[in-house]
Amino acid sequence: MKKKLALAVVTGAIILVGATPGLVLRGVTRCQVVSPQTVSHRASIRCEGSICTEEGYDLLASGLYRVESRNASLGDWVERGETLAVLAPVGSDPVLYLQTQGRGFSGAGEEAGLAALAQSYGLKEEEAVLQWRNFEVSSAGGQEEPVTVTAPVTGILTKEVPLPGSIVQPGMTICAVEGRERYFALLTVGEREAGKLSLGSQVILTGEGVGDTACFGTVRKIYPGTRQELKGATPQKVVDLEVALQPEGQVIRPGYTVKAEIFTGEPEEMMILPYESVRQDKDNTEYVLVAGSYQLEKRPITTGRETVDGVEILSGVSRQELVAVLGKEPVEPEKKQGKYLLELEKEGASK
Question: Which domains, from first to last, does the chain contain?
Answer without folding.
Answer: 27-40+270-345 (2.40.420.20), 56-179 (2.40.50.100), 183-265 (2.40.30.170)
